[in-house]
Amino acid sequence: MLKVIQSPGKYVQGAQALQKIGEYIKPLATNALVLADDFVMNLVGEQVKNSLNTSSLNSHFEKFNGECTHDEIKRLTEIVKKNGHDAVLGVGGGKTIDTAKAVAHFAKTPVVVAPTIASTDAPTSALSVIYTAAGEFDSYLLLPKNPEMVVMDTTIISQAPARLLVAGMGDALATYFEARACCTTNQPTMAGGTATLAAMTLAELCYDTLLTDGYKAKLALEAGACTKAVENIIEANTLLSGIGFESAGLGAAHAVHNGFTALEECHDMYHGEKVAFGTLVQLVMENGDSEELENVLDFCVAVGLPVTLEELGVTATGDELKAKIMKVAQASCVEGESIHNMPFAVTADTVYSAILAADRLGQEWL
After folding, report:
1. Whose C-alpha in 121, 191, 302, 347 is 20 to 30 A from the C-alpha of 55?
2. pTM, rounded to two decimals
3. Active site residue 85
4. At the top level of CATH, which class does the domain 162-365 belong to?
5. Would residue 38 show up in a list of annotated catalytic residues for this protein?
């Protein structure tokens, strides 16, 4: 099988990068649809509008309704076509970004994404995660190309609550372990082939960066500072993890995350927080090196990622707990899920037992 790696056309990261967004878009388009939710509109809307105006670009700002659903994508695609927009700019969090990418795909325009947080690795990928209106995982939409440009304004991103950057670390934490599993089985990735050495190296660098700078970055943000460690973690959460997951592969961790979206009590948890616990579940399933598992537990506890079901919001006990965890396990193992990339057969019973064991390990570690 061919090896394939893919990435965004350009990645820009640095202080006040959003002030130059008009310059970045001008070579691509003349009339952009800008997509953001109310909070982000109030936060950076005027800054984006001024930059687009300075570059003599026409634009229309449209409110994102909060969920990346088929209906929302259809609604926004119709606006792009009706107004004759020749580019889509998505500004905000992961679901806004995924929606912008999907809309640009169906409208056949370039897409530029400008995250205001670094809580997921969604920005760089040729993928949108589709949810139901109730917030449950629906499906993956594989796109034919990555964004033309990703603009990471570290001034804005570092002003977000530290929990969001930590959630991004949880998403990035899975990258190396899922990539390793896929390479073991030589499974094709979302890029359409097997992993290159470059993709695996980026996935491993992502993990090393988290262990080196993750705790320091959390403390810096809590102090209101944007340090070199913060800059490194923003890059790890976004670029390293983004290329790593897409071009080196997904395994059990993200499938377990998708399973937990079936529980209403977990809907207030961020994507990366659920993925972090899914990483522990995957490591339990693999039953590998104990020191490696302990390093992951230490990291999660240090930065504040959940290591128990209770920390995920699951407080049921007895038969009710068993029923909920089996529901998660079954959803994690549906046909086509990335959990089947693991180098051994996986069943709902396997996942059920691994979730309970990971929870118990987390309790002991705390």
Report:
1. 121
2. 0.93
3. no
4. mainly alpha
5. no
